[in-house]
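Box 3.1 A note on notation
Throughout this textbook, protein chains are presented in two layers. The first layer is the amino acid sequence; the second is a token string describing backbone geometry. Keep the layers aligned when reading.
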Amino acid sequence: MSEIFHPNRIRLRHKTSFLAPCFVLAALTGGCAGGDFGRTRNNAVTDDMHRWIGVEATGSVGLKSSEFQLTDLERQMRDLAYPLIEPPHSRPLWKSVFGDYKPIASPWRQNVTYDRTAYGRLLIDEPHRSHTSRYSVLMDDARDDILRFEGFYATAAKVVELDRKRNASLKLVSALEPKERADAIARMDENALIVQWVEQCLQRRVSSYKWALERMVIHAPDGMASSADMLIGELAAQTTAMAGSLTPVRPGKVLQVGG
């Protein structure tokens, strides 16, 4: 390589042949939305990059989102919700590396019916060097969801508790403007609907993981199946616990992912 780039050893025709593919590569990478080394471009990453999740959730049930700025915890909750509402392996690897960050299409804006078999079929149909690697992928996905859930649940619990205090304070604030009251109520509904969205998506993941494991057991039985089943059961238990403890601050409309 040192000889190629030495200025005294490059002929014009070599320059031309070398630069041509460089121009092509530059055009391709210049048009890509991803940043250096596959990272998302800085202009696609902002503090409120996941604010749209609340807007989508309220819009799905005919409510307006709040115009209040997000608190640190509310922003964190939305950031932690995103990887849980996005279906696992829902985008090709090249999109994850080169693609710009974009809000995923909400289920209620799609005509696609939820298919609990899609994850398992993708896992089984993809070529693997060993059948155990399929079990490893399933276990890694379930384990990652458990870890993500723990962070989301801890943050969501704090948000719900603060919303309870916010709701109680509405009766105590002097000269409360109607717009302020409406935005406060909208934010409480928004937070509650995000929790419901994550809950329903986790229920779907558990269902998809169970279907995949059942098929893998008959395609290629392995002792790893019991470990995978334990992880899926743990994720299911966490989802049930969230549904029982993170109740909405005030009764409102219920989000339905549908499909």
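The chain has a mean pLDDT of 78. Residues 178-219 form the longest helix (42 residues).
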